[in-house]
Amino acid sequence: MSDLHLGLAGVGRIGVMHAHTIVATPGVGRLTVTDVDADRARQVGAEVGADSAADVEALLAAGIDGLVVATGTAQHPELIRAGVEAGIPVFSEKPVAPDVALSLPVLDFIARRDGVVRIGHQRRYDAGYLEAKRAFTAGELGWLHAIRAVTCDVTPPPVSFLATSGGLFRDCSVHDFDVIRWITGREVVEVYARGSNNGDPAIGEVGDVDSALAVCTLDDGTLAVVTASRYNGAGHDVRLELQGSKGSIEVGLDERTALRSAEPGVTFPGGTPHTTFAERFADAYRAEIAAFADLVRGIDGELCRPEDAVAASKVADAAQESLITGVPVRVG
User: What CA–CA distances, in Å, run from 89 to 9, 166, 198?
Assistant: First the structure.
């Protein structure tokens, strides 16, 4: 399978990015795309040199070797099932389904059909996160006494998106919850969350917050603090700090980190901060698609399994519940 034929369902913002990435991935010889907007599918296909299919049924009938799902969240379950039913590997953007309750039947379907499905948590293929995991696993940090995760966008997405995203913890911090589990190998057992709205009042009107903090307790007692914001004028800021009994390490601390030092004479960082998640994780997205191509060939890697994606979503659900109730919530 040196020249794979991959299919892509959904050519919105992230789907277009995946389309460009897929056609540039070594070993992929052909891409076929589809979208509920058939004209857009044809347009994007022409832009990247891909074929287009009228619908998902036609896409699967085209003889694709693997399916990439980049549609809206509500369509993820049916497309994952369709790919599994067709007997091909599936890579779907997170989450598995709009909520955990809807995700569980999908996990059961995948298990019963022995399906090969992975979920998009691209930070697992970012060089910094990989090094942090290596250092912790190798014992270089000792035991962890503190974990701090930050994810901040420069400006918020459209309020229309926020109205259906499930909240800041579910659409943003879920990536932090995933990498905390992935790096430490521990489960989050309790979450206490707080949030605020100091930006656009419309964000609060649709039930979301523009800034939030969650204190997470892991099953070995380690504490992790996860913060997120929709308004970070300094730039797109994504970092993870692991402080241990032997050493500490920080992901995302480089010349493009979206902060400045208050110390006299210190000019670090001196680069231009990232402005979008696509820019910050461009290399990780490329590595993630390359890993999916390997998976289609039968070579597994660090791609997020659906059960792990749902586990991260459970933490996000607990954080959202705590945000609403104002009390700590056990992760169910």
Answer: 14, 27, 43
Are the beta carbons of 176 and 227 closer than 8 angstroms? no
CATH match of 4-120 with 2.60.120.10: no
**Are 141 and 133 within 8 A, CB to CB?**
no
CA–CA dist 84, 86 (Å, integer): 5
Contact residues for 71 (Cβ-Cβ < 8 A; gap 6+): 9, 10, 12, 15, 35, 36, 79
Domain ranges of the chain: 4-120, 124-283+311-330
318: three-class secondary structure by DSSP? helix
List, in sequence order, every residue forming a beta bridge with 212; answer none if it has no partner.
Answer: 195, 228
What pTM value is reported for the model?
0.94
Nearest-5° angle of CA 271, CA 275, CA 277?
115
pLDDT tens digits along 9-33? 999 999 999 999 999 999 999 999 9
* Residues in contact with 325: Cβ distance below 8 Å, sequence separation at least 6, in sequence order: none
Residue range 74-97, pLDDT digits in tens: 999 999 999 999 999 999 999 999
Under CATH, which number does the domain 124-283+311-330 receive? 3.30.360.10
Q: CA 193, 177, 198: angle at the middle one, nearest 5?
A: 40
Output the six-digit token pair for 50: 């891909």
Strand 248-251's sheet: what is its strand order?
A: 248-251, 237-244, 144-152, 223-229, 211-218, 188-196, 329-330
Q: Are 303 and 91 in contact (CB under 8 A)?
A: yes
Q: Which of 282, 284, 288, 332 is nearest to 311 (CA)?
A: 332
